[in-house]
Each structure stands twice: as structure tokens, then as C-alpha cells.
Amino acid sequence: MKRLLLHACCAPCLMAPYKHLSRIFEVSVFWYNPNIHPYREFLRRLRSVRDFCSKYDISLVEDLSYPIEDWLLKASLLSKKSNVLRCRFCYGDRLYKTALVAKELGFDLFSTTLLLAPYQKHELVKEIGFKVSDKVGIDFYYEDMRKWFKESEDMAKMEGVYRQGYCGCVFSEVDRYWRENL
Description:
This protein is an alpha/beta fold. 54% of the residues lie in helices and 11% in strands. The protein has helices spanning 11-21, 39-55, 68-81, 83-104, 122-136, 149-159, 170-177; strands spanning 3-7, 26-31, 60-62, 109-112, 139-140. Helix 5 links the parallel strand 4 (109-112) and strand 5. 39% of the residues are buried.
């Protein structure tokens, strides 16, 4: 069975993809999300992923680096030009790190739960995944996981797993909530 390193942005987005992918791969989960702000939100999502992995005895690889200043500088400069450039940087950063770790640890493939949420720029994640694959020299596993979104949401609700209201970065939080509560 091939070994897949699956990048997870949060526990709700991990649940159904893990369920389905673990039927065909030996899946380990990878946590690397320096985009998540504020730091308390980062910790809350990390704890949720840890709890899920622990409960189901899932192998979890963590990169806990949090280069907030560098990430915010790059993301804010790109955000002034366009949200797509900011997201491209963010997806690229996380997928590149996932691919490097997957290759270093001897995995056959890498992928990401960013392919689950209909709120993500799906085609951009897919494009970057394949580009990173070519650059790093490890296969990117692509599957349109959006078909599992409702299942993942239902699983998270049923298990009482923390479900956040925005992608992760401060920019996505503003995009989601700006003027909603004024």
C-alpha cells in the first residue's frame, strides 16, 4: 500500500478525506499552517487535529513553526495586488513544505485537505500541487474532495469537533466577517 502524507488545515476538513483515503493508502497527517491567525486560533485548530488523530490512532507529523512576521509581510504585500496572489502564496507555502517533508520521510505521495472546502480556490490548489510535485520530485495525489464536504461537516458536528468560520488568515477572517456585525 502506498504511503500518503496528507496536509490538514483543520480537523473538520480532515475527517471525511481521511476516512476515504485511508481505505486506499497508508495515510499520515501533516500539520503546517503558519497562515492561521490569531495564534490562539492556530492553537485551537492544532489541538483539534491532535485530538482527532489521537482518538483514531492516526500518525501525525507536525511542523509547529510560526513565522508570523514573514508570512504576514508576504501575504499583505500580495493581498494589496489581489486575493488570488495571496492565496497562491499561502497554498504554495503549505504544499511545498508538505512535499518536502513527504519526500524526506519516504512517503510515496502528498496531498491536502484544502481540496475539500468549496470556499477554497480549488483549481489553484490543484495547479500548485502538481507544480510542487514536479519541483520537489514526489507525486501529488489529486482527488476532488468537495464531494465529501457535507460528510466531513456532519462528522465534525456529530463528534463535537471545533468548526471555525474562516479559512485561517486574518485576511480571510475579514473577508468572511467584514461588515457582518456592524
